[in-house]
Design a protein that fits this description.
Largest sheet: 3 strands, parallel
Oligomer: single chain
CATH class: Alpha Beta
Helix content: 40-55%
Strand order of the largest sheet: 1-2-3
Number of helices: 4
Number of strands: 3
Distance between the termini: 20 Å
CATH superfamily: FMN-linked oxidoreductases
Length: 115
């Protein structure tokens, strides 16, 4: 298990944390920019995990662009909150997790390259 996977698992399994909310963003339903804005709004409202996946006909290029847009938007807000003493930057450090279907698709694409 990689460091990223371990961190996401630790985040989900933290027993001392309050009830958590995750939002599912389907890249087929909006542009990457809109998905990033929705992710920022969800985290601002208290979501503590972003799940990306959904429609089986979504192209992987769109998934990639959506994940990058979400991560960049969250990094920007995290940086901005680190500059404001009234905000807590750790509230913006939430995992962005690909759905199982998306992970399986990536593995099928990568397996020939790894052989």
């Amino acid at each position: 298990m990689s460091g990223v996977e371990s961190a996401a698992l630790a985040h989900v399994c933290e027993r001392n944390a309050a009830t958590r909310h995750a939002i599912l963003i389907d890249p087929a339903d909006q542009t990457p920019d809109t998905a990033a804005k929705r992710a920022v709004a969800a985290v601002a409202a208290g979501s503590q995990m972003i799940l990306v996946g959904g429609s089986s006909d979504t192209g992987m290029d769109n998934v990639d662009k959506t994940v990058v847009a979400i991560q960049e938007a969250l990094e920007l807000v995290t940086w901005a909150s680190s500059q404001d003493s009234d905000l807590d930057e750790k509230n913006w450090k939430v995992p962005v997790v690909l759905s199982h279907r998306v992970q399986q698709h990536y593995l099928r694409l990568l397996m020939p390259l790894l052989s």
